[in-house]
Design a protein that fits this description.
By secondary structure, this protein is mainly alpha-helical. The longest helix has 14 residues.
Length: 78
């Protein structure tokens, strides 16, 4: 069974929502449902900064002391 949710949004946001739904060839309701599902699947660490850090950490790039890394970079340029 579904539950009805009413959210008031300004006309400008409604226009952007309508365009996003049209681009994806779906209704506004379906677009909102999918976007909410995607947002709720994301790790909840504490805001945009944390999200960016989480994405950066997921790269599993090499890390080390900054002086050592800079030295290795310079050695590689020789």
């Amino acid at each position: 069974m579904s539950t009805r949710l009413q959210v008031l949004i300004p006309p400008e946001l409604d226009a952007r929502l309508r365009k996003a739904a049209q681009r994806n060839r779906m209704s506004k309701g379906e677009w909102v449902r999918r976007t909410l599902e995607d947002a709720l699947r994301q790790p909840e660490i504490g805001g945009a900064r944390s999200d960016a850090l989480t994405r950066l950490a997921s790269l599993e790039a090499p890390t080390s002391n900054i002086d050592k890394m800079l030295s290795e970079i310079e050695t590689g340029r020789s």
